[in-house]
Design brief:
Blueprint lengths: L5 E5 L3 H12 L3 E6 L3 H11 L2 E2 L3 H7 L2 E4 L4 H7 L16 E4 L5 H13 L3 E7 L3 H6 L2 E7 L1 H14 E8 L3 H29 L4 H9 L6 H12 L8 H17 L5 H15 L29
Parallel strand pairs: 1-2, 1-4, 2-3, 4-5, 5-6, 7-8
Antiparallel strand pairs: 6-7
């Protein structure tokens, strides 16, 4: 099965690079990598013994399967642009494109349509995991697209994941991913407020986290981010800038059905504030910099009751 795949990557940041390393370790032929940061792609190519491609088109030329892990809607549109000779579509015939970025659902629908028009298959494989899981091949993947594309990609995706789920047609997995991140980010903001208020009240935060963990305040975010919030250890696994972007995706989805979710809206505003004050590259736990006393001139204020 591994011999069926010649795998290229477009976008080799924190997640894409570690997915490429994982597949290389598992015996897959990783052919070429491309990133807007050419120094990053050259370093990874040297590490993996593959080509540092000068363009997405070159990745598609060298591969039969291309995994894209890019940052936003506009970048996705660019790498699939019909009017750019160096886009993936230049060598798209019979290719399989697996798109792992968190982008708007309609972008995945558009990319599937473009891929089909140019003789390729496209699948969204949305990730609900972080850097260690990408490196270990234990991602949680939610897939959207045709069942044929999913079945073709499945052996490869099983090598990258501990849990693999087919959600439905193009765009559907991206909707689920948007809601996952909306809830996660809102939980993170709530935890930051709880610990920040605890600090303001003079409570022992280690004790407070232990109590949270054994009561209704327990959460996955408490496990991953609570100690980091307390210790101001915001090394980036999932950036505040990405949290703001993903909150925006969820809010735009809500708008299409006439809803304005209040908690998600406030969470979006908090993460956007972090970006505005130059802290967007902190981990999402960095939202605590806005809620702990004495940490930021942009810290939140409590509503008078």
């Amino acid at each position: 099965m591994k011999d069926d795949f010649r795998v290229g990557f477009v976008g080799v940041g924190r997640m894409g690079a570690n997915m490429a390393r994982c597949l290389k370790d598992k015996g897959y032929d990783v052919t070429a990598v491309y990133d807007l940061d050419s120094q990053r792609s050259r370093a990874l190519a040297e590490e993996l013994g593959c080509e540092a491609a000068p363009s997405p088109a070159r990745v598609a030329e060298r591969s039969n399967t291309v995994i894209t892990v890019v940052t936003d809607d506009e970048t996705m549109k660019r790498i699939y642009a019909e009017d750019w000779d160096e886009s993936l579509l230049r060598y798209s015939m019979e290719r399989l494109f697996i798109n792992c970025a968190t982008v708007s659902p309609q972008i995945h629908v558009q990319m599937e349509r473009l891929a089909k028009k140019h003789g390729a298959q496209s699948l969204e494989a949305c990730m609900a995991s972080s850097i260690p899981q990408a490196r270990q091949g234990t991602l949680y993947l939610m897939c959207g697209g045709t069942k044929d594309a999913f079945d073709r990609a499945r052996p490869l995706l099983e090598s990258l994941s501990a849990s693999l789920r087919y959600i439905g047609k193009a765009g559907e997995a991206a909707k689920v991913k948007a809601l996952v991140n909306m809830v996660m980010n809102s939980n993170t903001a709530a935890l930051a407020e709880g610990l920040g208020l605890g600090a303001a009240l003079g409570l022992d935060l280690t004790m407070l986290r232990e109590v949270f963990a054994q009561t209704g305040a327990a959460s996955r975010v408490l496990e991953t981010d609570g100690e980091d919030m307390q210790n101001r250890a915001h090394g980036c696994y999932f950036s505040a800038a990405h949290a703001a972007k993903d909150c925006g995706i969820a809010l735009r989805l809500a708008k299409t059905v006439g809803l304005t979710p209040p908690l998600a809206t406030v969470t979006f505003q908090q993460y956007r504030r972090l970006v505005q004050i130059g802290k967007g590259e902190l981990d999402k736990s960095g939202i605590a910099e806005l809620t702990f006393p004495g940490r930021s001139s942009s810290a939140c204020t409590m509503v008078t009751i």
